[in-house]
Amino acid sequence: MGLNVTHLERRIGSLVETDLETLLSGEAVQEIRDLLEERGVLVFRGCEMDDEQQLAFTRTFGDVYDAKSGAVYKVSFDKKDSPDHWHYSFGTMSWHIDRTDTDLPPFASILRGVRLAPEGGDTMFANTYAAYDDLFETDQRLIENLKVVHTVESSFREVFPDPTEDQLATWRSHDDKIQPLVWHHSSGRKSLITSTSGCRVIGMDEDEGEALLERLLHWAGQSQYVYRHKWQPGDVVMWDNTGVMHKVMPFDHECGRLLHRTTVAGSEPFDPRRDASMAA
Ligand SMILES: [Fe+2]
User: Fold this and answer.
1) Cα Rg for the chain, rounded, in angstroms?
2) Residue 187 above 60 pLDDT?
3) CA of 247 to the centre of ligand 1 (A)
4) pLDDT averaged over every residue in the chain
């Protein structure tokens, strides 16, 4: 069976109807990759998977990211479901790109709805390629070579504006990471690296830098760049982490909502120029 594709929003998101066999055989992998790069988010509906099948589907795109720490990651606010990671879920409530704390982020993530919230808990995705393309040229020139400091603390500050000493100590135990503001992709296209983890612009006055980052985050989160996914049981949602930022909408954290995530390793560093200079 081929892929039956319906666009969900004008500039982001497509519904892909097919069967499990087509997804697992890898026969449509190039078609799906191309569609993912063009549309940012793909929703596969009607092909129920278990964990093993989700992993097999993930492997059709390449290596599984960070396989050592468990290839199927449980996304939950419940300590029982996710004893080591549940507290990180709070950082997913603000716009972010996964792993801005690393040089080489994952290419794509695949989320499967296992137990859904009775109310709320939609996942929002925003197309950071389209948001870059639409900037005024003056802004594109302004940000072309800017670098931004990303911190774990900044990822959590929006959700916890008055953190405890313990929270602050935990957040500050992680190293800061400097990333460019514009992602120069090997395809020649550019996208914004907008993420709540970004807090300071190198070489810019602190307030001015913060205002610029806030303005760009707000810009990229405008409705014309956003697809809002309302979960249905068995939904499998895949997004391109190199051209999409995402966040979860509020819901009752006691309701047992559980998603299983698998991740495809990336090949595009945030900063190809840094990598080139390191190799030299
Ligand atoms: Fe995330």
Assistant:
1) 18
2) yes
3) 7
4) 93
Q: For the chain, count helices (H), then strands (E).
A: 9, 15
CA of 246 to the centre of ligand 1 (A): 6
For ligand 1, the distance from its centroid to the CA atom of residue 127, given in whole angstroms, is 14
| Residue 280 alpha carbon to ligand 1 centre in Å | 33
Q: What is the pLDDT of residues 33-60, one digit of tens each?
A: 999 999 999 999 988 899 999 999 999 9
The residue-averaged pLDDT of 224-237 equals 96
Pick the CATH number of 4-279 from 3.40.50.300, 2.60.40.10, 3.60.130.10, 3.40.50.2300: 3.60.130.10
C-alpha of residue 229 to centroid of ligand 1, in Å: 14
Strands (E), the chain: 4-7, 14-17, 41-44, 73-75, 108-115, 123-127, 147-150, 177-180, 182-184, 190-192, 198-201, 226-229, 236-240, 244-248, 258-264
Domain ranges for the chain: 4-279
Q: Rounded to the nearest whole angstrom, what is the distance from the C-alpha of residue 1 to the centroid of ligand 1?
A: 31
CA of 245 relative to ligand 1 center, distance in Å: 8
- Identify the weakest region by mean pLDDT among 35-39, 80-84, 165-169: 80-84
- Segment 210-228 shows an average pLDDT of 98
Report if pTM > 0.90.
yes
